[in-house]
TrEMBL record:
Transmembrane segments: none annotated. This is NAD(P)/FAD-dependent oxidoreductase. It comes from the Bacteria. InterPro entries: FAD-bind_Monooxygenase_sf (IPR051209), FAD/NAD-bd_sf (IPR036188). It comes from Arthrobacter mobilis.
Amino acid sequence: MAIIGAGFSGIAAGIKLKEAGIENFTIYEKSPNVGGVWWDNRYPGAEVDTPSVLYSYSFRPWRWSRTHVRQAELLEYLEAVVDEYGLGRHIRTRCEVESAVWNEDRQRYTVLLKDGRVERFEAVVSAVGLLSDPRYPDWPGLEDFAGPRFHTSRWDHTVDLSGKTVAVVGTGSTAAQVVPSIAPVAGQVKMFQREPGWVLPKGARDFTTSERAAMNSHAAQRIVRAMMLMRREKAQYRNASWRPGTPENAAAEKAARTYIDTVFAERPDLREAVTPGYPFGGKRPILTDDFYPSLTRENVTVVPRAVSRVTKRGLVDAGGQEHEVDILVMSTGFKSDFVSTVEVIGRDGRSLNEVWNGEPQALLGIMTTGFPNFFMMYGPNTNGGAIVTHLEAQADYVVAAIKLLARGRASSVEVRDSVSQWFNSVIQQRLAGASFEGASNYYKSATGRIVTQWSDGAIVYSVLTKLLRRAAWKTRYIMPSSGLASEPTSAVRAAEPGAVGAASERAELEQLYVGS
């Protein structure tokens, strides 16, 4: 079995497989280390928005130092979990998967790696996540900019910001962490804002000595975790916090407006610039304690206009004004196309993106009809809420399906189209009327369909992943199964001589692409 990605999703899947007694799997990670987005996103100020107790596996609590863990400590946690559960021998770092092609005759996926190797697996799990493929802007002149330029998820730590004029383009959660972190160092910070977001204080702080001591008890942590989840469920059920007209949404927007009035009491210009014109929740709310105060610094300028083009010396905003800058930081988000970094070809020779046609959908965000033995974690309509809880539920779901293959009860497992269509219809009904509809955000497809968000909280999702298993699956038994192979069939290793074997495998792969 192949797992693509060694972030929270891939690690959870690997642990659940080992706990089920399934050891024959490989986790491919394109980066030099485990961690996923928490390895890639090492920009200044990077930390979680979710309380640390929730942003960790329920089966492996941790003695966190803060209410909201920072990137370095979170990465330390994931590395420790990998070591503790013996996942290291299953993980191949610096190993990128380009494609996975289903072979109906063999009931296997042919997996092509970027280094040219070809391997086969009975099942593939995409654990690449939703926020893994940086979105670079297409501004005219970007290539002509003379100074350093980089995306926040590819931060260049060799660039010295001291005394420099730094442009930060974007005002989402990442920019809200970057700006306060670099403002004390940079000479000037110019933040370009196409549209403001709603901001609420996070309340992040270091734990006290007594609080840290209490975390030595895993039982106490589990109790706190359960209480936090229960408090969140009411706000998340049917997206109450993100639905205009509900008490939860009204209270949140009132709190956000009060926060604006408090911080910018003496800066009416900034108060106007940072106040959104759409209902609370239309974009991802920003939780931060120091973003608004940083905007009042003398060396920070808010440019309330989008970037229209780039020159050799700086940026030209939508109003035509040019701003000279030394360094360009693009906090422009990620592609919201699921599995955008891997091409997946299903039974009829059609790619996953071709089947979706711009509107990704799947049963529970995990399985799509026409793609046997292919599973996604953090897939369509699973974003929002306590995401690690979602990932654990998804991992359990995947393992339940893999057991059928491992025990020889099926050669393939696929979701029934009728169940998938019913599920996605219900999801869209329950999301209708949410604030997401009236704002520009990454939640929606080009047609306006909400393709990223979940509608009802972590507990409801976990229950559904248990209910929608065997009844939702269509299994096949085409050939005798000997269980999951202990080693993938590698073109380089299996053929003599290796180069000829590799060429033969790649030729076969090309045939699979055209459906033969």
